Amino acid sequence: MCGIAGWYSDREKMIDNTPVLEAMSETLRRRGPDEHGMFVGESVALIHRRLTVIAPEDGKQPMSEVQGGRTVTLVYNGELYNTKELRRELLSQGFSFFGRSDTEVILKSYLCWGEKCPERLNGIFSFAVYDSGDRSLFVARDPIGVKPFFYSEPDGCFIFASEIKTLLANPLVKPEIDEQGLMEVFFTGPGRTPGSGVFRGVYELLPGECGVYKNGTLIKRRYFRVTAHEHQHTRSQTVEYTRFLLTDAVERQLVSDVPLCTFLSGGLDSSIISTVAAEYFRKRGNTLDTYSVNYTDNAKYFKKSFFQPNSDEEFIDTMVNAIGSAHHNVVIDNEDLYSALFEAVEARDLPGMVDVDSSLLLFCREVKRDFTVALSGECADELFGGYPWYHNEAILFEECFPWSRSQEVRRSVLKPGFLPRGEEYVHSRYEQTVRATDYLPSDTPHKRRMREMFMLNFGWFMQTLLDRKDRCSMYSGLEVRVPFCDYRLVQYAYNMPWEFKALHGREKGIVREAFSDILPESVAWRKKSPYPKTHNPIYHKLCAEGAERVFADKMSPLYEMLDHDGVRRIIEDPESIPSPWYGQLMKAPQILAYIAQVDYWLRKYKVTLV
Fold it and tell me: CA-based Rg of the chain, rounded to a whole angstrom?
């Protein structure tokens, strides 16, 4: 894992812009603390910051090769999980290798297959290849969107990076936000429209998208889409194949030349990954390390709810005893959790999922003390119907994002008349996603709706979680891999009949059945529980004080945007909010924290409203 950036301009001599290039590189130091490199040509510069995971001596970047009188230079961020297969195929095509890094495999793949090479790759990646032969820049992002690729095209040039802050380090990219950006922050946030970077003129390659920048123009195409096909397997075959795909994905992602661990919450998804990993380690004479997160005094204040019926501790203990892992429990202090809200903004370059972000940031910081790579269970719920909104018929057919059904709470904190088209904007984004869904002519109305729900979750909620995972982990130089995001598993899940997916009438029923023989029964059939959050009232107090400071400060960029009485109602009566701001976890304290984050973001990034 690494950080990448680049700048292509026919108007600028890159050698004259060395200070800007160095400033861009410096913003990526956290993503790649181990090494840095730069390729500077006449009109193009490529930047790389490396976090060393595989082949320390072989994978130095930028990496170049000369072929047929042209030089091809690559910068790459990610991990490739079918390196061995591709290497064998490329050897059969006459290519040779000087090392064993996946970086070299991607470079040779481009030399062999050109713009078709992303279709050959199984992994999480973003990369750029400059080809001196035709002075083109080829760019690509992985099929599921695990690794980021932001870009801007100011003044007839192309600037790209793993993070928005890197773009903003170039004076050609301004920290500006217009009405559309404000609607992203206040009405879809912390989610964002696919392809949007929120800042004006900042965009992101879509999952499964690649493109060529040449002669001042970027031409993009989708090389991977989730598409509708008839499901060919019986129920028992589906159980067996689901197990094969996920087990294969986990085992492929256990390859590392540096210490590797897994996250273990005691939930179904992380327990499957940890069980498969523990057995893989055991066969090689090693013991797996696992990590979980909790909060100071959480047992004292925990309250059962529909979304969070039980806490994780007893299930974590059950799993640790079952797989024999060396377990580490990270306990986060509530004051630290609040303070880290603002570091989380700097990690994401945008307001985010508040304490869900800051807790992950602090958690990953602790894991990084001893490990460089971790596996995590994100994205199973989006793919296999884990969320309540998949199972509630009353919600299922509502024409809205199910994790943010009402805009009432968002509207309540804004001054009357501010962003009057906010609700319309959200609905247009919803409809845009639904229209892009692929169906079969034979699909029933229920089957069609399940496909739409899948794509809403895949394109929005899941991408928000992947943003969070990448930025909050890489902020400490920790690589986190997500086996459920294997593109083969995603495509298979999309076409799986609902009665299989929800086997036994349970959320993720097919996954439970597929691994029930290797998991403790209490874990295999445990009710879905979300990411652990703090229940300590001191956290609400800290968030309330933070929000009060914002609307008491006439110099705050938010002062004229907020309805102070609306915010005060949330502070004084946290149970009064009609629905969560986003998902299951962003309730009163998190709404107040979000306000504090937005204020900090506007100030820290010196955002100009245009």
Answer: 24
Two tokens, residue 518:
């290797």
pTM: 0.96
Task: Measure the CA–CA gap between 489 and 253, rounded to whole angstroms.
Answer: 14
Task: Quote the CA–CA distance of 608 and 557 in Å, as a whole number.
Answer: 10
Q: Which residue has the tokens 């349970």?
A: 506
Q: Do residues 128 and 6 make contact, with C-beta atoms less than 8 angstroms apart?
A: yes
Q: 2, 117, 157, 543: which one is catalytic?
A: 2
CA 2/CA 37 separation, integer angstroms: 11
On the question of pLDDT at 412 being above 90, the answer is yes
Tens of pLDDT, residue by residue over 519-550, are 999 999 998 777 777 888 899 999 999 999 99
Q: What is the 3-state secondary structure (H, E, C) of 421-432?
A: CHHHHHHHHHHH
Q: Which two tokens stand for residue 366?
A: 């602790």
Residue type, 466: L
2 as an active site residue: the answer is yes
Rounding to the nearest 10 degrees, give the CA dihedral for residues 437, 441, 445, 447: -70
Neighbour order of strands in the sheet with 217-222? 63-67, 70-80, 123-131, 136-141, 209-214, 217-222
Beta strands of 60-195 (E only): which ranges?
63-67, 70-80, 123-131, 136-141, 150-152, 158-161, 176-177
Query: Are 325 and 289 a contacting pair, CB within 8 Å?
Result: yes
